[in-house]
Design goal:
By secondary structure, the chain is α/β, with parallel strands linked by helices. 42% of the residues lie in helices and 20% in strands. A five-stranded mixed β-sheet has the order 4-3-2-5-6, sandwiched between helices. Helix 2 packs parallel to helix 3 and helix 6 (194-202) crosses helix 8. The two termini are 14 Å apart. Bound molecules: 5'-O-[(R)-(carboxyoxy)(hydroxy)phosphoryl]adenosine and zinc ion (ZN).
Length: 343
């Protein structure tokens, strides 16, 4: 369990080093005042996992172990800092959710640095990090906001009243959106990671070629992607000659349609002033365009993190850590990694 306690005094932590190793990216970043990215280094393991069609946990942990020190050193030197810790005010790290062995590499590194440098240490929920990605790039963020967090492991609709106050108002009842992209891609032989592969091939396809189901479209704020995935698999088995770009484009268009409709329903239901996307699937161009158009149509502000800020990175972890530290929290050095940590 994460042990968090409140400091009596409330010091300021302008420069935070963030570390992220929850899945298949080894990342480190230096962020100023929780908003300004000074440096951000992401070392992707995609090539190591692509032959297996997905992330292999043991390979991920070993690769994080090999790269993490170099990635941290590069983030520090890109920020004009040395590795003595001088200038850094605190160390933030993801402690869950994620692959346990992968998380432990970043967590141990962050603890060791915090101890050696005698700096405060803060453990951050990876999902909370994703929520801060858009904040890093937008000075004025209209609150309350609805954030649609769509990643490989999660699909959540979050009502954000103020910074640090979240309420989950909808979630997938089965597969995450990114998981559906990854599984459909693997099944169609398009490779890993599935999201970018489907998006690429869908450019040459017709999104209205096949009418796949849009599960739970008009049923509250929860979502479901497993029926859509199964429908694609069954369709391809029955129509092996059908053009794959058309199948991919039709799948993408259904998934995006559901995600957009649910985001709009969440804004309408909560009266939020803005709509924001977060997580890896938020890099999808069709989803970005549809969400922007929908937000414009209902007259709320729309925040789309840049594509590199959608996928896993450490700047969002440093930003989330900064806000926790400023709120008077820090984590004890016996904080553990939690594979299924909840928001
Ligand atoms: O947030 P993220 O980098 O890692 C997790 O925390 O899961 O998200 C990774 C997920 C993968 O499922 C990947 O296929 C999906 O995001 N993704 C995309 C795109 N880029 C990444 N899905 C759809 N379109 C994309 N362009
Ligand atoms: Zn993520």
């Amino acid at each position: 369990m994460t042990t968090v306690y409140r400091d009596a005094a409330k010091p300021s932590f302008p420069l935070v080093l963030g570390i992220e190793t929850s899945c298949d990216e080894t990342a480190a970043a230096v962020v100023k005042d929780g908003r300004k990215m000074i440096s951000s280094v992401v070392s992707s393991q995609i090539r190591l996992h692509e032959d297996f069609g997905g992330v292999v946990p043991e390979i991920a942990s070993r690769s994080h172990l090999e790269s993490v020190i170099y990635v941290v050193k590069k983030a520090l030197s890109d920020a004009g800092l040395t590795d003595t810790g001088e200038g850094i005010d605190a160390v933030a790290v993801t402690n869950g959710p994620g692959l346990i062995g992968a998380l432990l590499v970043g967590l141990s590194t962050a603890k060791a640095l915090a101890m050696a440098w005698n700096k405060p240490f803060i453990a951050v929920n990876h999902l909370e990090g994703h929520l801060y990605a858009a904040l890093l790039e937008n000075e004025d963020f209209a609150m309350p906001a609805v954030v649609e967090l769509v990643s490989g492991g999660h699909t959540l609709l979050i009502f954000m009243e103020t910074l640090g106050s979240y309420k989950i108002i909808g979630s997938t009842v089965d597969d995450a959106a990114g998981e559906a992209f990854d599984k459909v891609s693997r099944f169609l032989g398009l490779g890993y990671p599935g999201g970018p592969a489907i998006e690429r091939i869908a450019v040459g396809g017709d999104g209205s070629a096949v009418k796949f189901p849009q599960p739970m479209l008009n049923q509250g704020l929860n979502l479901s992607f497993s029926g859509l995935k199964t429908a694609v698999v069954n369709f391809y088995k029955q129509n092996p000659e059908f053009p794959i770009p058309d199948i991919a484009a039709s799948f993408q268009s259904c998934a995006v349609n559901v995600l957009t409709a649910k985001a709009v329903a969440a804004v309408t239901e909560t009266g939020a002033r803005s709509l924001c996307l977060a997580g890896g699937v938020a890099a999808n161009s069709l989803l970005r365009a549809e969400i922007k158009a929908a937000a414009d149509a209902i007259g709320v502000a729309c925040y789309l993190p840049s594509k590199s800020m959608c996928t896993d990175n450490a700047a969002m972890i440093a930003a989330a850590g900064y806000h926790r530290l400023q709120a008077g929290e820090k984590s004890s050095l016996d904080t553990g990694a939690v594979a299924n940590l909840r928001l």
